[in-house]
Amino acid sequence: MAKTFAGARLRRLREDRAVSQIDLARQLGISPSYLNQIEHDTRPLTVPVLMRITEVFGVDPAFFAPHDTPRLVADLREALPTRASLHDLTELATKLPDVAEAVIDLYRRYRQTDDQLAEVVGDRDLVAGRSPHDQVSDFFYRKQNYVPALDEAAEELAGRLSARRGEILEALRDRLSTRHGVRIVREDHDRLGGDLHRYHPQTRTLHLSLSLRPGQMAIRMGAQIGMLEYADIIDEIIEEEKFDDVQTQILTRVGLASYFAAALILPYGVFLATAERMRYDIGLLTEHFGMGWESVCHRLSTLQRPKARGVPFSFVRVDRAGNMSKRQSATGFPFSRSGGTCPLWNVYEAFNAPGRVMTQIAAMPDGQRYLWIARTVIHQHAGYGQPGKAFAIGLGCEIRHAGRLVYSAGMDLDAVDGATPIGPGCKTCERLTCPQRAAAPIGRRLDLDENRSTFIPYPLMG
């Protein structure tokens, strides 16, 4: 079991309550020197002492839960690219996580202010850097892709619907009809003007494209139920975020409704139990629940309910050009926000073998290793000669969870040297000698000499 060091949080809690070290030590039944060592992270916080602390201060044990250090370090790396070493950033994230969060929050506020200024002066290039899609993606990233209020509401409704396997579409149709008077109309893709679905509030008609597969239809219908029945929960979540841009509010509402739909169709308890039983075999899960690969992968990345957690996954969707259209994470994988991602990542290799499941043990510069599963998905709704959509879906977890996955079969999970060295993105990656580097790290000077050439594309000053 990992040791818990939470000295800074304990010291802050003690000082906020105006309790001296001597008084607290006496109440905890330990020596002042022992308490001093705990507060300076030279001794770990043991379970008996933790329980006594929660009783004395009346706080939840989760207050002392370890922070997501890799995630904090990645965000700090972007906020402070030239002001601190990786070691210093790790030290800050580990020992003063609240300060690290404050720095990151200030940086985000700076970016938001910069965007607003760019909007005022008409600099569209700057505005594009923080689009509504970026803000919604950041929102789910901060939530670690778990929204408890919606998840629990969806599971409760799923229990009342009591739909058996293969009956979910009919159950959703009946709910929309009997509860809301909404009629479902299937129409040709062209008659909908290229839309996949369209809802008309005036006539209470939900038009669904004939090109939608059953799983996609279920998501659209479930999202409409979320919009109609749980708008108060969705609106409250959006209000808490204080988005001042209407487009961002709309996209967040759509994202939350889709989240609700997935939680309704794949209710938490049932889905988690099935995933554990099938060892997270995505192919088996898609067949069992009648949902697509992307939907199942996305739902797997949301299973972080306290006391009933699944494997904490990171989820990503990219295209051939490296554009990341979705990124959510229940773990600390440091997605890049400054430029592209790593070309050595197996998510891109998936395009070379469409439909085949690719696996990779990848090591980040800080030594953290992940098991990644990647596969392509293709959305083809148009006729012959018309472009469709092709994406690679990636699902990754820390190596310590990999043994729970069927995809780890035959792998040596302890072989550190066998992992593929990847990074968060060239502009923030610490692998200075990587021959695949496409950009120099932020804040580093190039070691240029007109009289020599190097195999490394961006040689750096020592």
UniProtKB/TrEMBL annotation:
Which GO molecular function terms does the record list?
DNA binding; DNA-binding transcription factor activity
> Which parts pass through the membrane?
256-275
Key words, A-Z: DNA-binding, Membrane, Transcription, Transcription regulation, Transmembrane, Transmembrane helix
Please verify whether the record's keywords include ATP-binding.
no
Family matches, as SUPFAM superfamilies: lambda repressor-like DNA-binding domains (SSF47413)
Domain (HTH cro/C1-type): give its ranges.
10-64
Any GO CC annotation of this UniProt entry: cytosol
For this chain, the family text in UniProt reads: Belongs to the short-chain fatty acyl-CoA assimilation regulator (ScfR) family.
The name on file for this protein is HTH cro/C1-type domain-containing protein
Taxonomic classification:
Bacteria, Bacillati, Actinomycetota, Actinomycetes, Micromonosporales
